[in-house]
Design a protein that fits this description.
The complex is a heterodimer of chains A (about 250) and B (about 200).
Chain A: E1 16-27, E2 30-36, E3 48-54, E4 60-66, E5 76-80, H1 88-94, E6 100-107, E7 121-126, H2 130-143, E8 149-155, H3 164-168, E9 174-180, H4 197-203, E10 212-218, H5 219-231, E11 239-244
Parallel strand pairs in A: 7-8, 7-10, 8-9, 10-11
Antiparallel strand pairs in A: 1-2, 1-6, 2-5, 3-4, 3-6
Chain B: E1 26-27, E2 48-53, E3 56-61, H1 62-67, E4 71-78, E5 83-94, H2 95-102, E6 108-113, E7 118-122, E8 132-137, E9 140-141, E10 151-153, E11 166-172, H3 179-182
Parallel strand pairs in B: 1-5, 2-11
Antiparallel strand pairs in B: 2-3, 4-5, 5-8, 6-7, 6-11, 8-9, 8-10
The chains are: A alpha/beta (about 250), B mainly beta (about 200).
Chain lengths: ~250, ~200
């Protein structure tokens, strides 16, 4: 394992100016930014990148964002506006097509899925934690992988569901299971509570199936899902997590 | 390069204490959690801490560990994901104490942990009063989410070096990359030089 992940990365990650190609409103608080990156080395599903903003007086703020697009697609990030944020309000409200934006990447090599094996995939997303998992779903579709996928996606309300239309159209072999924790529309037939052991036991592949799990969301969500999967018999090494706490401001 | 982000003003112009916040970091009152997998829960009666020097292994049980002289330190911590947290208070055993008790000496150490996580450090960065194996945070037992029962605390380096759920130090003659270092993060990780990734 050692030595393989850094292959091709020896010259380091340099900042470059990308151009915003398009912005797409996903929900009232979430926007996808599609980028034209002149010198992009390619990325893997699940990786992230660094964004750097510079004000006229030289003040800078940096944040990292998961890459929302599949390998081979134009680089895109999906950003949730945080009310007390410094960077996310700029990215979701000010930035528009044609603007330049500095970034570098891709970063990370553990929370990635390359689609090379056919083991079932369990993706568990809390809120905007769906972003790197969406890259994996798209990657599966683009490569024709036969790994069966279940995406368990926890949102506050139906309006908060990111990529809703796209997920509704997900192809054969991809099951999307929603839970809405705060408010449900009339006639809602899905789950309506935070993920707990029972819900997880309903949705997760049986531990014997040898599934690989990727869990991304706020800490409380990730803790509940990751520990719940271990309780169901998933080996800890088959449960990969990525969390965001106060990050992303 | 003099790129300017059109329309970006930024919120903070006067960090509380600029000399305490490394470049590219912002200060948060929260204590975010980051880890690559499920939180391990090793029972304390099965917990040991080990200094491993080739075939020699010096170990402490949890009870023995708590009997070692401990220190309370207040330090600033800096995560590679860009949050910094000021004035965090920890209780732990100095790594000096552990290496002295083990009679161990080598140029590098590799910290190893429950869950298989590892991270590499030069010995001079974990000795001389610069690093601890911490079991208390904010005057309480260290929470499992934050690395309890015990984690490494090396506050002058990015916080991934302060390995959670640490179970020992293996002495090394060479600087052998640990978990995140293998995935492209910097071998050393000095926040003041923004050594986030390999090549920085």
């Amino acid at each position: 394992m050692a030595g393989t992940a850094v292959r091709g990365r020896l010259r380091g990650l340099t900042w470059q100016v990308a151009t915003v190609d398009e912005v797409v409103d996903e929900t009232p608080r979430v926007r996808t930014i599609v980028l034209d990156v002149p010198d992009w080395p390619g990325h893997r599903a699940g990786q992230h990148l660094d964004v750097r903003l510079t004000a006229e007086d030289g003040y800078r703020a940096e944040r990292e964002y998961s890459i929302a697009s599949a390998p081979g697609e134009p680089v895109a990030i999906t950003v949730e506006r945080l009310e007390d944020g410094e960077v996310s309000p700029y990215l979701t409200e000010e930035l528009r097509a044609g603007d330049g934006i500095e970034l570098r990447g891709p970063i990370g090599g553990y929370f990635v899925w390359d689609g090379e094996d056919r083991m079932p995939l369990l993706l568990a997303a809390g809120g905007s934690g769906v972003v790197p998992l969406r890259a994996m779903v798209r990657h599966r579709q683009r490569t024709g992988s036969e790994a069966p996928v279940r995406l368990l996606y926890s949102s506050r309300t139906l309006d908060d569901v990111i990529y809703r239309g796209e997920l509704e159209e997900a192809s054969d072999g991809v099951e999307v299971v929603h839970t809405l924790t705060r408010e449900q529309p009339p006639g809602w037939g899905g789950y309506a509570r935070r993920v707990d052991a029972e819900l997880l036991a309903d949705v997760a592949w049986p531990a014997d199936d040898g599934a690989l799990a990727f869990v991304c969301g706020p800490t409380s969500f990730v803790e509940a899902v990751a520990e719940g999967l271990v309780d169901l018999g998933y080996p800890p090494a088959r449960v990969k997590t990525e969390r965001f706490g106060a990050t992303g401001r | 390069m003099s790129f300017v982000s059109r329309g970006f003003k930024g919120r903070r112009r006067d960090p509380e204490d600029p000399g305490r916040v490394p470049p590219g970091q912002y200060v948060t009152p929260d204590f975010p959690v980051l880890s690559a997998g499920p939180t391990p829960h090793t029972p304390l009666e099965e917990w040991t801490f080990a200094v491993v020097d080739g075939d020699e292994r010096t170990t402490w049980t949890w009870e023995e560990f708590l009997e070692l002289p401990s220190e309370t330190v207040t330090v600033d911590i800096h995560c590679v994901t860009r949050w910094s947290k000021l004035d965090t208070t920890w209780e732990g055993v100095s790594v000096d104490t552990l290496l002295e008790e083990a009679g161990a000496d080598s140029p590098y150490v590799l910290a190893f942990c429950d869950g298989g996580y590892t991270t590499n450090l030069p010995t001079e960065d974990v000795t001389g009063g610069k690093a601890w194996v911490a079991f208390g945070y904010d005057r309480e037992p260290l929470d499992p989410e934050h690395g309890g029962p015990a984690r490494l605390l090396v506050p002058h380096l990015y916080f991934w070096k302060s390995a959670k759920w640490v179970r020992g130090l293996a002495l090394r003659e060479e600087d052998e990359p640990g978990f995140w270092e293998t995935y492209g993060y910097h071998l050393y990780g000095d926040p003041w030089r923004e050594q986030r990734y390999a090549g920085d």
